Each structure stands twice: as C-alpha cells, then as structure tokens.
C-alpha cells in the first residue's frame, strides 16, 4: 500500500508522551495527526522549572522536541482540537474531534489512536481546612514551579517578599478518600517538593509528609543535599491553616508522631497537589469504551502496559497512571510501537540485518515480540539455558498477574515466531561497528559464531545485593525477598505459613555511601508478600520495619490492604535501625516504635530483608560496546528523561533492570520503547 493511501495514527495530546509517540511514528514512516486542545506543544513539561530527576532546566529541551514534531513532513498538528470519542475496529477507527470553545465536531478515519491527554492537577479549594483561596500565602506546588520557571524568584503573594520560612505539605489530592475518592499516590509530588526546597536555601524549610517517597531517580540524593542544608522532614499532616498577623504568612496545627498537638507559623505554605482525570477526559474515555482501573486512571495490563481495553487504542503518560517525565517518554515510544504493529505496515527501510536483543528475561522477550510485530527480524541471545529471567526463577504475582505464567507465555510466543532466532547458552564476547551496522562474536556450546546486526537492545538483568547485615548468610531463617518468595513457592500450604514474619526495608539502599538511591520496588514486593501471608494465615503476626513506605501510583492499594489485614508497621530512623541477634535458638528483632516512644522486640520465624538490585555481568557487556555506566554500575542513557532508552553509541538501546531498578511493568514498557527506538534508528539510516 502506498504511504499516501494509509490512514494516519491519531495522537491526542501534545505533551511529552504525545510528542515522543508522534515523532517516533513519523520517522518510522507512518502518517500522524497530532491534536492538542491548547495553543502550544509541550504540555505540563513546558512549564517546569527543572527536571525532578536531575535538577536541570527543561524548557529548551521540550521546545526542541516540539519543533522537531512541528517540522516533520509526515506530521500534521492541529491546535484547539480535542478528542471526544473513538469507535470502530483497529485499522479503521472513527474518531470524533471537537473544537475547543466551539460546539462543532467532525469525524475522521484513523488506523490507531494514542491517548496522551494527560491529567489535571487537584484543585484544593474544596478542602476548607487548608484555606487555599482564602489565605493568600497558601499556594500550590504548581504556583511555585511557575515562579521558579519565570526565574523571578519565589515570593509570597501577600507582600511580594521572598519567604523566610516555608512549609511543604504533601498528599493534597492524593492518598485520600474524603471529600472525594483519590486513593492513588501521585508519584512525583515528593520529588517536586524536595527540588523546590533545594531552590530556597535562604528559607527555613519543613516538609510535612505521611511517607517521603524518594523513588524518582535523583530524589534521594537531592533529599540528602536538602537535609544537609537544613530541610526538616516531619511525618505529620497539617490542618486548620489560617492567616498570620496582618493577613501575612500562615499558621497551622498538626499532630506529631507521639500524638502531641503542635503549632507552626511560616511565611508561606506550599500544597503539593496530586493529579487525576479531568471531567472531559472521563467523558471521552467513557464514550470510547475505555475502562478505568481502581485508582481512576486508564486500566492496563503489566505485560501490555500501554494497551487499553479497546483494541487499537493505546495510552501514554499520566492518563494511564501517575509517573515521572521519563516514564512519559518511555510510554510514548512504547505506544508508538503498539500503534505501528496495529497498523500492520512494516516501516521502511526493510532492514536486511536483524536487531540483536541481549537478554531473554521479561524485557528481552517483550522487546523481541515488539520488533517482530512490526516486521523486523530479531536475534535473541540468552546466556542461560532457558528463556524467562528472574520472573521465571522467582514467580510472584504483580498487579494481579502471575509472573511465571505470563513470562512463560511470552517465551512460547517468541519461540514460535519465524522472524525471531533464539540462541540460548550464548554470550556476546566481541562487537565492532561497521558502516553497515555491527558485527559480533558469540560464544556458544558449538564454538564461536559470528553475527551481523543493524542495531542492538541490551535487556540484561540484575541480581540482588548481599549486604553483610542482619545475619544474612549466617542464619537460614534470614532471607532476601526473592529468597523468601522462592521459599514460599515450595511451602505454599497454610500450615507451612510462618507464625511470625518480620520485614526490614531499605537494607543497603538509601545510604549516604554505596547504593544511595531508593531501590524502588522493595516496598511493593514486601507488601505483596505480607498480604499473601495474612490471607494464608490470618492469625500470623506480620511486621514491617520501614523508613518510608514507597508505593507510588496505584500500588498504594497494597499499603491500604496490608493495613486492613492487620500487618504491623514500625517506622525507624536510619540512625537507629533495627537490631537483629540470636537469643538462644530464637531470632530477635529489636526496633523503635516511634508512635509509642518505646522499643519493640519480635521473635520471627522468618526475617525478610529488602535489598537493592545490582548489576550482574553488565560491566563486561558495557566494555564491549564502550558504553558509560552510572555510579552503581547501571547503563547510562543519552538523556534520563527525553531519551531514557537510547545509549550514547548510535544503534544501541537498553531496557529493564540494566538501566536501574524498576517494577516489571515499567521494564516491559522500556522494552517496547527500545524496540521502537531501534526501528526509528534503522528507518533514519535509509
């Protein structure tokens, strides 16, 4: 079919996710119609002062991406245009478009639809105890971001003076059930507040939070820096905000962790507002038959993270759930791949060389399937004897799906496709770039084999760290989370369930030295296991010692369910971490109960440690391709937000745990994104 006769792919939304999806599709040879309800491209990212991941300015980078979109000949951009509904079947969908501010509509035929219309910030005026809109110096985090982006400095509205004291109040419009249902964590609010606190070094700064979630890349390091500069973190929820003397400043009350009512007075209070679907987006999704999940965002499957319930319609960005800007870029490319596969037109050029995918875990399998679905030949190389990676070895349930079963289905699909050559028990031992692409040498059971490939995706996994703490390796009852999951797999019966289990979080992560970052998935894994234990044996005593429970997005449901089932939670100060010892034949865990102001001692049958994932064998592969790595040893992308799966050498991409710790659905999205970026690269060589 001639390209001029193809129906375009419709991308709704001109934010970061929509821009990435539209440009990837266009470069790959697909006609694209991008609609934006506003008057400019860039979405929320265009108004940010800096990236939460790096603290670097972002507006010029987003503007550059927007300019590339506007200039591409296969891209048509229409402003003041909104999507109202989608009907029909994949390949020939009917989209109803409306004009912003007008009542007129039109129908167009499109091959596929990518929903990237984003979310809306929570409007806190309905929460009277926060006095937003009543007290002038109560502002939102968006207002502060606008001031920082304007480069005029942050001032309090009442008198235009720089604030000498600021209170950052978290979870406004997130993690709440009254006066409206907003149960999900909005994922980036803590990171935004930490960055804003760093931008106000002259002020006394206090951050009020239920949990300070530092999972966004760079946030823990920024938090360490902010605390060194005087930022105070209080675990409390301020209420009854009122104006200070002469109508300037803000006073409020809060209950501290010991249950004592306290008061504070600041020049300015900043409400960290969450996000949710707008009424217009809800109406569009309802009219299109697109299902929502329990958290109120578009429902997706962890193994198809950008596919909606309606075939041919895909989602990218915060419409599918809260996430940072880098995830929006990833999902934009992933949605572009899915749309390209749905159109079922192989993009030019018809590359004679395959794409080499290194790693046969969930990310490598998803990447291979995505490439093959777009007509691209693949060579998949796995060092072990079987496909599947960690999910096969350590079966768990993630977001309602059994990982072992899901990954086994992916492996079966990969092995059944004629366009994918699978090589197990094989390792890449040499690589060199040529004018035509790449050449390499594989060590196989039959000897060295030479290969040629046009591009490569590194989907190498990782392993668990083995810190020398808490008797790990010296007492068989002390296990890492993956070891405990394996143990439960071989002891699944209720009578096998331990009577007392203790989890200790942040073992070897969020440190001042070594692994400084949050390990991202440990809290969710611990809560999954804790919930399963309580359901298997309701009378069991299950306790979690934690610094902050980090369950971003809809993972907040796990935290809610664990508390409902009676899991005990004890927050600990990293300077006074829990102690583990043997008392006779027993294990004993002693920690501080901050709420009661006294120590607590438990004698668990099993002690489960949340340790971070670390690179395994990655340095050797990085050296083969002369690729840089980060401090902890993960692969370093070209840009952590705008090009998060592109590696610094042309034709090389990465996905999954080799880029750093992340939940399984994000690994799959990265795999799809890497597949699309490889297709884009090969198309650009034509």
Outline the fold blueprint.
Blueprint: E1 9-12, H1 16-27, E2 32-36, H2 59-71, E3 75-79, E4 81-89, E5 92-99, E6 105-110, E7 112-115, E8 120-121, E9 138-140, H3 141-150, E10 165-172, H4 189-198, E11 204-209, H5 219-228, E12 232-235, E13 239-243, E14 250-255, E15 261-266, E16 268-273, E17 275-276, H6 279-288, E18 313-315, H7 325-343, E19 355-358, H8 362-373, E20 378-381, H9 389-393, E21 397-398, E22 401-402, H10 403-416, E23 420-423, E24 427-434, E25 437-444, E26 447-453, E27 455-458, E28 462-464, E29 478-480, H11 481-490, E30 500-504, H12 522-536, E31 541-546, H13 556-565, E32 568-571, E33 579-583, E34 586-593, E35 598-602, E36 606-609, E37 613-615, H14 618-624, E38 652-654, H15 664-684
Parallel strand pairs: 1-2, 1-7, 2-3, 7-18, 9-16, 10-11, 10-16, 11-12, 19-20, 19-27, 20-23, 27-38, 29-36, 30-31, 30-36, 31-32
Antiparallel strand pairs: 4-5, 5-6, 8-17, 13-14, 14-15, 21-22, 24-25, 25-26, 28-37, 33-34, 34-35
